[in-house]
Design brief:
alpha/beta; Double Stranded RNA Binding Domain; 2 domains; five-stranded mixed sheet; globular
């Protein structure tokens, strides 16, 4: 697809909008009409004259040629945002006519629609926020309703955070094998086993240094999340070493939630679960993704559905308070009926929370490198899966507590966390809403420094890969010094808003 932008800079969102309809095509951006014979597929022109703005959008292919325009008087509100929205609405209408496909999230392309819905609710009230989603952003009735429900539950969690609150994230970038859809920075045990011990030693050193910084800055720990990768690729003694380091490095008294991803059932045994329980972990994830053994083989997960059920039963017997289970809608070769069987089985098990993801075709995943394409003809099976999931989970007493979206998702859909009352995953909400500072430790971790009561966010990146992390460790500790100066610069501001 060739897109032309003339006399404006609103290319980012509109380029992403074109990508929703043509996810498997390369998008070429030009700033002027080409002299060669190739025909631009999308042309967007902004004209300004005597206090008026006019947007003209044209879409052209070999068999289709239509254009849309709109005009309004400048003044009042955010003119730039309104111009971008008007351009997107014009373009959206033309792309719907060209392809015959509506998008469930309308012209929205961002990761955090609930954050936007909350901002609109604060400005306009809940009812008018819903109207704005439907009428101005062209979001479907179904997704607008889901957004309103999710935002209401998120609001309760966000109210727990304070100006000096923070969460801790620790990365274990190792897995027993790499799933075909995965794009995370993780190493298979076969290839990286020799790195685990030196990596863990340095990770514990970084955690201790980060704890000293947090204490010096007067920060209060809300949640801990150990993710990856698959943290339970570590042995029981290694898990105990990691968690005891966290407990000795931070004041755990205010901590509301301590999560460890035990995502792969083939890494779970009684010794590891016992180590987690003894160290105070109160939330774990046991992730089937599907209970169809044939699909598990296709996506490269070296475990069976039976292993998932056995791991869950073991964790329940051992007394875990909160078990989360993840599913993915739209996996290769999975049918709607197969997805229903998986979800129905999980609902009967009754874990405290269930997260329903939609397959995202990340460019660095094996699926993408093998040439797998996103479906674009008609309604994708993932849409029917999510509809069934929403109905079933509501019936079984779950509510949506967080929601986010990714690029290149099947059907341009979403990921939703569902929980029983009292079991919302707090860290998930804090990190997705960007509520407060996240201090990240380990390879691929990102520290996010949040200025309270603002949209200001500053990032500090750790090295991505375990060998980089090990070789560049001293440099990363130097980067962490920015946390101290960040809060020193905020001292007067924090004293005022904490009154």
């Amino acid at each position: 697809m060739i897109t032309i932008y003339i006399n404006h800079e609103y290319h980012y969102e509109t380029e992403n909008l074109v990508r929703l309809f043509f996810p498997n095509e390369k998008i070429i951006v030009e700033r002027s009409l080409p002299e060669q014979k190739s025909i631009p597929n999308v042309t967007a022109l902004l004209q300004e004259q005597e206090g008026k703005r006019r947007i003209c959008v044209a879409v052209e292919t070999d068999s289709f040629r239509q254009e849309e325009s709109c005009e309004w008087t400048e003044g009042g509100g955010d003119t730039e945002k309104e111009t971008e929205r008007a351009l997107a609405v014009c373009l959206y209408g033309l792309l719907v006519r060209l392809t015959g496909r509506q998008q469930p999230w309308g012209i929205l392309t961002g990761v955090r629609p609930i954050k936007l819905f909350r901002r609109l609710t604060e400005q306009l009230g809940a009812e008018r926020a819903g109207d704005y989603f439907r009428e101005k952003l062209l979001v479907s009735e179904e997704k607008t309703r889901l957004s309103a429900m999710t935002e209401a539950y998120e609001k309760k969690i966000l109210s727990l955070s304070r100006p000096r609150s923070f969460s801790l994230y620790c990365s274990i970038p190792f897995c027993p094998s790499r799933c075909s859809y995965c794009s995370f920075v993780s190493q298979s045990i076969e290839n990286a086993k020799k790195l685990i011990e030196p990596y863990l030693e340095l990770l514990c050193q970084e955690i201790r240094a980060t704890g000293e910084i947090a204490r010096a800055c007067g920060l209060h720990l809300e949640t801990v999340y150990i993710g990856g990768g698959t943290p339970t690729t570590l042995t029981a003694p290694q898990l105990g070493q990691l968690i005891r380091t966290i407990q000795s490095s931070f004041d755990m008294a205010p901590c509301r939630e301590f999560t460890v991803e035990a995502g792969r059932p083939d890494t779970i045994d009684a010794d590891k679960l016992s180590a987690l329980l003894k160290c105070g972990v109160d939330r774990i994830s046991i992730n089937p993704q599907t209970l169809n053994d044939e699909v598990l083989q296709v996506i490269g997960r070296r475990h069976t559905a039976r292993q998932t059920l056995d791991a869950y039963a073991l964790a329940k017997r051992m007394g875990f308070r909160h078990i989360n289970m993840d599913l993915i809608a739209g996996l290769p070769t999975e049918s709607v009926e197969s997805f229903r069987h998986t979800l129905d089985t999980l609902c009967e098990l009754a874990p405290e929370s269930i997260t329903v993801h939609t397959l995202s075709m990340k460019r660095s995943s094996r699926l993408t490198s093998q040439g797998t394409l996103l479906e674009t003809a008609g309604e994708v099976p993932a849409a029917a899966m999510l509809r069934y999931g929403e109905d079933a989970l509501n019936r079984w007493g779950y509510h949506p507590y967080y929601l986010y979206r990714q690029t290149r998702m099947e059907g341009n859909l979403e990921n939703v966390g569902w929980a029983k009352e009292g079991f919302d995953g707090l860290y998930n909400v804090y990190v997705m809403d960007e509520t407060h500072t996240i201090l990240g430790c380990g390879a691929g971790a990102v520290t996010k420094l949040k200025k309270p009561a603002s949209e200001s966010l500053e990032r500090i990146f750790n090295y991505k890969y375990p060998y980089e992390y090990i070789n560049g460790f001293e440099e990363m500790l130097k980067r962490k010094e920015r946390v101290t100066t960040f809060y020193a610069e905020l001292a007067e501001y924090l004293s005022q808003i904490c009154l």
